[in-house]
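Quick start: read one record
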Amino acid sequence: MKSIYFLGLCLLVSTACWGQRISLEEAISKAIAQNPSIKIQRLETSIAQNNVFKGNTGALPVINLIGGASYLNNLTDIKLRTFQSDPEFIEIEEAGVENINANIGVQADYIVYDGQKSRHRLALLQGLSDIEKAEQEVLVNEVVLNVTQLYLEMLKLQNQAAFLRENIANSEVRIEKVKDRKQFGKANRLDILQLQTALNRDEAVLDDVLLAQNTLSKDLNFFMGEPLDQSVELVPVPLSLDLPDEANMLAEIQANNPQLQLARYGILVADQQLKLSETDRLPTVGAFANVGYLYQQNDVQQLARIHNAGVTLGISASYNLFDGGVRRNRIQNARISVDVEKSRQELLGESLLNQALKERQRLDLLQSQLAREERNLATFEEAYTKTQDLFLAGKVNNLALRDAQLARLDVLLRIDQIKIDQSKSYLILQQLMGKLVE
């Protein structure tokens, strides 16, 4: 894997362990090795690869052991011409006339000339194998992208849970402080109720975050081929965005994008199908050789018994003179298929380039937003710290502290979301350039 292992988010606070620790690299490795869809596609690819051999195209001789036997028992009425005046005919009428036939041998059939049908069939089989392999690459890229995006979404929720736990811990400390102040008459029950209400809201939001995290965990486990009820703690990794210039990015997409590679193989297969259809215009010449033994026994014929052992050689040729336009229609449709596959590739290429340009512009915008929010964070941190000190000193009420706390939490969550969005856009660009999995 390339580029994936340098993506992720830096945690701003430490997180509590709630399950098995797993890194992004481990999640991707498990998905590639164990994902059910990838396993199925690997089997499909193996089937297509196993079909690519000369014997599957009619290019090699076919040798068969042949044999047969028959027994007849009939009521027979035979009239024989004697070519004499008297008697002119001889009639034989017999019941239970037996006739026994038996033969055994080895026969070889070989196509001497087929207008290069076998060569085009082999190329077609190879093309179908390449398509299955390309589909496997596309599927692997999709699974890796899904796993990474799930990982990042779960990491975002994990960070949110950490921020909320920090808020909850601070709220619990403040409640105890206010309870102490109430004993000295410097606070009232309403102050405690307002702080408890804010604490309850944070706990409710934390429950929602943990529920969403648990749902995404099941999706991630499915992609990794792990038990769905397995809980995991995600290990953050440093975020590193190394973007190529626009020209190189577009060139990488044209050269390496898995979907474009699949489309190119589709054109090659359609072209081979056209060539194979055009060979129907040519004759087919075949040869055969037979080595065998024949036994025949007759009751009423003059030839009572035959023993025959030997070799038979032969050659056959066929050429279709008229098929009702089937051949012409097949060739015409094959040509249309080639044009369709080329049009699909062009349309796909334009769509992928457009998507890449939008993701690149989005990354530039997100970088500007991240810089602004990180500058704002320092202001909100200072405001929150000073407001909390004033609250503990009894100089401001809990509403002002709650506003400062929520403002700080909001900017932390925005920074976290921007980093997630950056990672997603970068991953999409890597997939478009064919560098997500190598």
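The longest strand covers residues 89-113.
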